[in-house]
Amino acid sequence: MEWVGVTLIKKVECHLWTHRLMIPPKMRTFACSDNYRMLSSYKPKNIKDSYRILKLQEGCSIDDIRNSFRNLAEQYHPDSGSVTADSATFMQIEEAYRTVLTDLSKKLKSREDKEEEEEDKFKSKTPQHRHYLSFEGVGFGTPSQRERQYMQFRVDRAADQVLEYRKQKLESQYTTNDIMIAKDVRQSKKVKITQAIERLVEDLIQESMAKGDFDNLSGKGKPLQKFSDCLHIDPMTRNLNRILIDNGYQPEWILLQKEIRETIEQLRRGILASRKKLGEPMTLCRQKQWDHICEQFIEDIKKLNKRINDFNLIVPILSRQMVHFSADKEIARAQKTYRTLMEEMRTSDKDPKENEQENVKLFRFKTTFFKWINLMLK
Question: Could you tell me which residue ranges the J domain spans (predicted)?
Fold first, then answer.
């Protein structure tokens, strides 16, 4: 044992790793550990010297320290096999590494102690339950940690509220659409049923009229009774209606409807008469006159459409409303009517002699045809 120790001390550079194999297994750990400690006689002057040996700057992270130590060990470790391997330099690097780690652990411990002291001061100044009332009671740990947890909680809550709002909006939209669709379906069914009933009643009336069921009615050819003794009609209303009808009163919308119909018929007759007056063929002068007539007709149609707007505002029944008249369609209608009249006049003015000649030719053709058939049969 003494011999091994002397050998390790005197010839450490050459025989440290060789003579270690000669130590018994039970004593190997103790002998190497103590003598290895004896070999690290280098002590850094201060923490800056340790950082300089590790080629680092103060304030670096523990990962940087470990990486630097690993890189230097690969360069200077006696067993690394590199050109720069040096046991003395490696011992300095290791001692500096241990010094830096010890310093970092002390700093971390002192920092934790300060935080605990600050937290203890905070706890001593406020009631125990008071800090749970802040941040809505969310989070745990120090106040700064709870504040960060509370901010994250608010972000998550806001995102949930936005999603809930969008969900409710979509649900309300789909609900409204479903209600409108159901309403339209009910309305369409109601309209179909009403139209079917009206068609059925109209068919029954027409069938009865065709059979003559309405020919022998007791009131046929007699004026209708203006008022009936219906118990559901108020006597005051019945008397007022009788007075108004006897004096020739008519609602405004009925009078306006009659006026519109008479005006459009008058305009149609006027433009057709103007077209007949111009006649054929349409020379340049006549074409100018026709264009002027069409412009005046368009202005009259615009005035009539304004009257239709007034009528649609006061008519009490929606189905009684009228649509606007189109000046272009009315002009085309007048032109078509004029052409039809001209064709009828041409056909009626044909010479009767020409008709007789055509009849004679047709008779001769028929006789010759029948003679040929008889000859073929013989």
Answer: 49-116
